[in-house]
């Protein structure tokens, strides 16, 4: 038979002849783990456990037989044998190695384990019985490991390092279980490390007080008192005792401070370091002064706060990596919970990436992903969406926090792309990886649609469709791409599908009618566009939806203004532009004003009011400088360039016209490209343009084909506008 190795502690893995085996689907994998753990089971019980919650008896039996077929195909037809027709069991002669069983005779198997959770991060959805089985096995496994460690500690040839690692890992699994701390304290007592034993007790005391408002039990407290008394009785010459004891305490404090500072990925703020280290004020200050004086850490003040960090990142990593994996995990979990509590109290979005980071490092991927989604959703709302839906909080409150944090955002996207690349081909549809893959793909699609990188957007959309089918979110992102790139027919088609999917009375109806109206504008069918946009605005401003969807009413009115501008009904255009700005003023939408200001500026420009036009166009340009979106960015730069040319500032105008050309390369908007071509053609032929400016524009001119780009513009109104556009 094949050599089969099964790792059940931590994330489960299976090897056949030293080669990793991936199961075709989760229920077959779950049934395999159940059988190798228990050794046998009744056929009917297996069907009930893995398929009873989801299917009828006939289909459950068919799925059971299919899972049995895949297991036997992979591990050999004799790997599983039957006792009559009802009992299924592992063949006693199978060449099978299971870490859960082998640890009983060889405790070294537990060394280096990420954690001791039975089937960590593995689940079979809609199988309540299997979930109960996993929970029960986790309790039994932890208890068995504890007993083995206790037995090892009581032996003559105790492997103290191994016992220490096991104890710390058990504590990370249940940070409130006193007997795990007590075992670790006994270990340090045996080693003669009373200081470390006392620190373990203080850590337990701190966690119980903070999280449960309780104190340690009598048994562990008596052990602490015994260890403290023994420490005081140690034979140190009477005159040297105070000095040596003080040095010892200060050394411990410095070590603790360095440990906590290394846990912060950037720098540690005074109050947070004080909180986590739980050191008395006087001793804390002495420890910090000692570390700063010796150049081990550096301190700096910023906006009235004091921060501590290592002079070199390599030093931080060295201290951090000197901690055991178990200790790191425990500390990260403690920090995640603290930041989580702080976020719920103050709703400070700046904390979200810290919560996600520390949960990720503590191997709680589910919570890490939750807060990552919270953070990126809010970031995308500010940086990539003009008109977000506001849910119970003002997403614009910490706008600068998000928009100035480009380095951290770039790092997050890089990590997500690495994960997608690693799992996109091998993801198990039944496992936790599928949910993470869907989350990361959704975030990446939303980002690259607006940056934009359309090739990458379509690639991630395709992967999402393979996992989910065509969802409403996928439909929206496709519609945004078509809107941004002037694909009017495709936008109309997608918008109609969205309208059909949305409930008749929902705000989503308004959302899709808004896109439908924009699609008609791009196509040049202005009356149809007007009707859809008016219906959209009416839905958004209804009593039921006004609070959350109000910003979307503003954009509907703004596009109604565009209809008036292109058809030269300027009174109507100005009326709708003002309505849009009035609504947006009450929403506090920093990103939405960008497009509204641009539309108003274009309307004033076309009516010859350059002074007011300059005010709105400049405001739009300034907003674009903060945002990452490309949609209509080139237009803002183009109009700013023309207004500067009209004032005689040719150098300034040339700078913005070059920006307009660069933005048009990325946006692929044919109207913006044609506008850029039209302006650069007019200005370079103008006798008012200085030779130096003309030469600069010619040298940096983008190589767009006016004929090809104009052919992509379906609206006769916009083509006519371009033909009549002039600078002077």
From TrEMBL:
Pfam assignment, any one: BTAD
Keywords noted in UniProt: TPR repeat
Top-rank taxon, per record: Bacteria
TPR repeats (start-end): 554-587
UniProt domain Bacterial transcriptional activator: residue ranges: 98-228
Cited SUPFAM superfamilies: TPR-like (SSF48452)
Keyword Nucleotidyltransferase among record annotations: no
Classification via InterPro entries: AfsR-DnrI-RedD_regulator, BTAD, TPR-like_helical_dom_sf, TPR_rpt
PANTHER family in alphabetical order: TRANSCRIPTIONAL REGULATOR REDD-RELATED
Protein name per UniProt: Bacterial transcriptional activator domain-containing protein
Organism: Blautia celeris
């Amino acid at each position: 038979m094949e050599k089969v190795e099964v790792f059940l502690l931590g994330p489960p893995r299976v090897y056949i002849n030293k080669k990793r085996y991936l199961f075709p689907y989760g229920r077959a994998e779950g049934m395999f783990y159940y059988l190798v753990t228990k050794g046998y089971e009744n056929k009917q019980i297996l069907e009930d456990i893995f398929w009873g919650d989801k299917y009828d008896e006939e289909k459950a039996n068919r799925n059971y037989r299919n899972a049995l077929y895949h297991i036997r195909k992979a591990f050999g037809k004799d790997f599983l044998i039957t006792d009559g027709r009802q009992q299924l069991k592992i063949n006693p002669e199978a060449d099978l190695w299971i870490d859960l069983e082998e640890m009983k005779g060889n405790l070294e198997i537990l060394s280096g384990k990420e954690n001791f959770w039975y089937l960590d991060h593995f689940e079979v959805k809609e199988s309540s019985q299997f979930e109960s089985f996993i929970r029960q096995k986790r309790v039994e496994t932890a208890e068995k490991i504890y007993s083995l460690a206790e037995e090892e500690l009581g032996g003559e040839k105790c492997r103290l390092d191994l016992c220490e690692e096991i104890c710390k890992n058990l504590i990370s699994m249940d940070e409130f279980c006193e007997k795990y701390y007590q075992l670790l304290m006994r270990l340090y007592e045996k080693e003669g490390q009373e200081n470390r034993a006392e620190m373990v007790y203080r850590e337990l005391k701190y966690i119980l007080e903070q999280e449960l408002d309780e104190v340690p039990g009598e048994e562990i407290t008596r052990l602490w008192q015994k260890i403290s008394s023994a420490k005081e009785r140690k034979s140190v010459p009477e005159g040297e005792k105070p000095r040596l004891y003080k040095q010892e305490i200060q050394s411990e404090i410095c070590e603790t401070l360095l440990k906590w500072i290394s846990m912060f990925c950037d720098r540690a703020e005074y109050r947070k370091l004080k909180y986590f280290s739980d050191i008395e004020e006087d001793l804390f200050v002495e420890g910090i002064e000692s570390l700063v004086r010796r150049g081990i850490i550096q301190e700096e003040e910023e906006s009235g706060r004091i921060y501590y960090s290592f002079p070199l990142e390599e030093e931080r990593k060295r201290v951090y990596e000197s901690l055991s994996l178990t200790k790191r995990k425990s500390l990260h979990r403690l920090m995640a919970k603290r930041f989580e509590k702080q976020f719920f109290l103050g709703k400070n979005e700046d904390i979200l990436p810290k919560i996600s980071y520390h949960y990720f490092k503590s191997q709680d991927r589910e919570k890490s992903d939750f807060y990552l989604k919270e953070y990126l959703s809010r970031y995308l709302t500010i940086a990539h969406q003009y008109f977000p839906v506001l849910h119970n909080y003002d997403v614009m409150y910490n706008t600068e926090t998000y928009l100035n944090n480009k380095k951290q955002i770039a790092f997050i996207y890089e990590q997500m792309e690495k994960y997608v690349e690693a799992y996109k081909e091998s993801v198990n549809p039944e496992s936790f990886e599928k949910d993470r893959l869907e989350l990361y793909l959704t975030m990446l699609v939303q980002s690259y649609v607006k940056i934009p990188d359309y090739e990458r957007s379509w690639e991630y959309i395709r992967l999402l469709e393979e996992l989910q089918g065509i969802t409403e979110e996928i439909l929206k992102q496709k519609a945004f791409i078509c809107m941004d790139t002037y694909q009017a027919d495709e936008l109309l088609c997608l918008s109609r599908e969205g309208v059909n999917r949305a409930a008749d009375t929902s705000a989503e109806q308004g959302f899709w009618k808004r896109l439908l109206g924009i699609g008609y504008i791009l196509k040049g069918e202005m009356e149809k566009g007007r009707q859809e946009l008016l219906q959209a605005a009416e839905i958004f401003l209804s009593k039921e939806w006004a609070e959350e969807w109000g910003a979307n009413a503003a954009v509907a009115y703004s596009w109604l203004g565009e209809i008036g501008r292109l058809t030269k009904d300027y009174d109507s255009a100005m009326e709708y532009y003002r309505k849009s700005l009035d609504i947006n003023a009450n929403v506090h939408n920093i990103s939405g004003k960008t497009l509204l200001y641009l539309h108003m500026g274009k309307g004033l420009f076309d009516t010859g009011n350059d002074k007011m036009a300059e005010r709105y166009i400049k405001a739009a340009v300034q907003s674009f400088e903060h945002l990452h979106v490309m949609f209509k960015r080139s237009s803002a730069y183009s109009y700013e360039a023309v207004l500067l040319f009209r004032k005689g500032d040719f150098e300034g105008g040339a700078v913005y016209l070059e920006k307009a050309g660069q933005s048009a390369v990325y946006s692929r908007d044919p109207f913006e490209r044609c506008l850029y071509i039209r302006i650069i053609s007019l200005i370079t032929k103008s006798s008012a343009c200085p030779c130096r400016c003309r030469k600069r524009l010619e040298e940096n001119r983008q190589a767009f084909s006016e004929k090809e780009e104009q052919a992509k513009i379906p609206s006769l109104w916009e083509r006519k506008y371009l033909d009549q556009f002039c600078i002077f």
